[in-house]
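Lecture 7 notes: from sequence to structure.
We start with the chain below.
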Amino acid sequence: MIDYKNCNIEQVAVHKVGNKTHREQLFLSKSILDTSDVKLNELLKKYFLKPFVETEFYNFTFSDDDFELNPIYHYAKTFFADSNAFHKTSIRIAKHLFEVSVHPNIKSGDLFVAKFNNIQIDDESVDVIGIFKSENRQPFLKVNSKKDDFVLKYDDGINIDKLDKGCLIFNVAKSEGYKVCIVDKLNKSMEAQYWRDLFLKITPCNDNYHYTKEFLDLTKSFVTNQISEEFDLSKTDKIDMLNRSVDYFKTHDSFNKREFEENVFNDDSFIDSFRNYDREYRRQNDISIEDDFEISTFAVKKQSKAFKKVLKLDDNFDIFIHGDNSKITQGVEKDGRKFYKIYYENEE
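Predicted structure tokens for the same chain:
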């Protein structure tokens, strides 16, 4: 949980970063922005920080996991050590972003670099460096009064409720590559993930959020992709198994792998298959998950949306199964038509 209610913006710089492939230019500012206006300051804090109230955390990395070689890590270390180097270092960040902005899908935009103090994270007040890119400008109307009449004008600008790309670097966990969180709402395609993979170069923190997220992903992958290859299970059985896995995370504060396996699979054959799949999944995806950890409710809320609870029947019916698959049975009529029989107590 990030709390920025009492934070202050110390410095802000802005630069214009184009796309090299389109022969667009890099425009660098000569000085930092004047943000002394109280209203402007509050609007900037809303634009920069509102999307980061609940988020997942990362560390900087690089080849061979040597985060010391990561350019953004190096620039952040300079920021935190010497506030006088702010503008010069913001220029280096803009140049670095310009160098990786080569894919034709990458949009040009305004790059903001900001220094904050007194942001609360895990009950600790810390300094934070923010890097934000605005790629989309929107038209807006402005009505001005003129004597006894009105004048209507238009312009285009940045929507402060829609941050396109952002990054917060917290002055904590320096020896692990700092603690970092990101926003990248517009570009989900592989070729456009330059913000995370090319520019920032980050890797998930080994924390409760990622343990929770990764184990839910692992379980979903096993039930969805693997279990049918070894066992004859109906779709309702698999949905019920997915429901039990999510329910475990929703009803427990801490995770224990052995307890989870017994609650969700409740069969030695299923458990053995899951353990084999677990080992291979971790190896192929290069992830590490503890067998015991505190469950992140934020991760559960986010990941559970991806768990399928709907049984689709042709183009006619969708059956939502939230639990207790004993109340739904499957059969086949003499004429070959398939059916599901559903038992219930109350109708609403």
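Points to note: The two ends are 38 Å apart (CA to CA). Residues 209-342 form one domain.
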